Amino acid sequence: MAAHVKVGYNDLMNDQPVIISLVPNLMFATRIEDAARAAGAVVFNPIDQAAFLTALRNGARLVIIDSSATHVPWMEWVSAAKDDPATEAVPIIAFGAHIDLELRNRALGAGVDRYLARSNFSDGLPEFIAAAVRDATDDPCSEPLPAGVIRGLEEFNAGQFFEQHETLELVWRAELRPIRDLYRGVLQIGVGCLQVERGNAVGAVKMINRATKWLQPFRPACQGIDVDRLLEDAARLRTELEQAGDDRGASINRALFPQVHFRA
Hints:
alpha/beta; Rossmann fold; Hyaluronidase domain-like; 2 domains; five-stranded parallel sheet; two-stranded antiparallel sheet
């Protein structure tokens, strides 16, 4: 078990966002601490349910749980948190073996918001914490683009469609609010372009159709992204693909690939 678990909540700097960690594995605990520090947050490791709930009521931003942990009855704590209107909205992420479906189902039944395989959790950890400590508003479209999204959009516009998918998926997984569908829509248009490059026009059309569904609620623009223009460009590409047919998808002019544009 990590040596810092006995730090009390009152010992933390109250002007920093707090991440609650129920992770006894030293390797993962260290990674969580490093990611929190990079985001300007601190980690709290409660030793009992009272301390856990107090931290949540005092504004902790995120709970991270190793589902294999046995040092605390974390499922009981999660259920108590989700039953309390003062703490139910705090996101709770658990990670564990992807093959243990029974444990996953029990965790979700207790109230965990998202359950991830260890590898996915490890890859997305910086984004999970960044999303948690980012100042949120009642109007997410007025918020600035997260750093991970900016990086993904740069890759999208550079035609790096596999890379943009990997980058934006991390942010999409980390974000729990509906704004996540904006990022999912963009990445799926990028995947559609990747399918075109691989000669799969039918697959590309399917991805563009899915992306259109996710992007519609964010018209005309959101977080600076010109959603209307992106949808228009995607629709133009879809029309060309439908006319070309699957056997000619690879011949589509790459100049028709959408770009992400921005509004002031």
